[in-house]
Write a structure and sequence with these properties.
Blueprint (H helix, E strand, L loop, with lengths): L3 E5 L22 E4 L6 E7 L2 E6 L17 H24 L2
Antiparallel strand pairs: 1-4, 2-3, 3-4
């Protein structure tokens, strides 16, 4: 039996049960999903467009990262950099007509 599968969220091949291979429907982030056919339980983690299925018997294989605090100085600096980039991009587009 497979213990962990990492793949694209858009690819149907990666949404199959780790034990029996049946399609899993209704996957939601940071939940435990049970296969309706064989009863195998999976931990579901979604990072952007990446889907990670981990067998519930092996939670040690799951590497769930906690989201960063929005008041963190690093996150604030990143937000400022993004805002500055958007302003300069708007100036560039207005100048070159794009």
């Amino acid at each position: 039996m497979t213990l962990k599968r990492v793949g694209s969220l858009k690819n149907k091949k990666h949404k199959h049960c780790l034990q029996c291979g049946r399609v899993l429907v209704g996957l939601k982030d940071n939940t435990e999903h049970e296969c309706s056919f064989c009863g195998q339980k999976h931990f579901v983690d979604i990072y952007g467009t990446t889907l990670v299925l981990t067998a519930a018997e092996r939670p040690d294989l799951r590497r769930r990262t906690e989201p960063k605090n929005p008041d963190d100085p690093e996150a604030v600096q990143k937000k400022k950099n993004q805002d500055e980039f958007k302003k300069s991009l708007a100036i560039f587009r207005s100048k070159w007509g794009r």
